[in-house]
Design goal:
The chain is an all-beta fold and 125 residues long. It has strands at residues 3-7, 10-13, 18-25, 33-39, 46-51, 57-59, 67-72, 77-82, 91-101, 105-111, 119-124.
């Protein structure tokens, strides 16, 4: 019953920026851990950014300092601001929700959303 609606992806030059959005219906983002994942062809899916129930963010080392995750609980929307993009950031980006323990711990083995189309980010040199 959970539905995800994406926007904001696109094709940009190296060094460019985008703002990805994921509108969630069917669960309240205020009570789940939320995250952005990405997957490039031939590579495993990786979690690039996450945010806890109480809005504490975490980032993969590869994107730290360049990406910013945020959420709007009233709009049930998850955002990812991606700056200083590099060709290696090219991937399909998807959002996901996971069970939360308290306000700051996430159980990433219990993701409750489905992997859909996501939104494509393509970065060229």
């Amino acid at each position: 019953q959970v539905q995800l609606m994406y926007s904001g992806g696109g094709s940009v030059q190296s060094g460019g920026s985008l703002r990805l959005s994921c509108v969630v219906s069917g669960l309240p983002v205020s009570t789940y851990c939320m995250a952005w994942f990405r997957q490039a062809p031939g590579k495993e899916r990786e979690r690039v950014a996450s945010i806890t129930r109480d809005a504490s963010p975490s980032y993969a080392d590869s994107v730290k300092g360049r990406f910013t995750i945020s959420k709007d609980n009233d709009k049930n929307t998850l955002y990812l601001q991606v700056n200083s993009l590099k060709p290696e950031d090219t991937a399909m980006y998807s959002c996901a929700a996971a069970e939360s323990v308290g306000g700051n711990a996430c159980i990433w083995g219990r993701i409750v959303t489905s992997w859909g189309q996501g939104t494509q980010v393509t970065v060229s040199s």
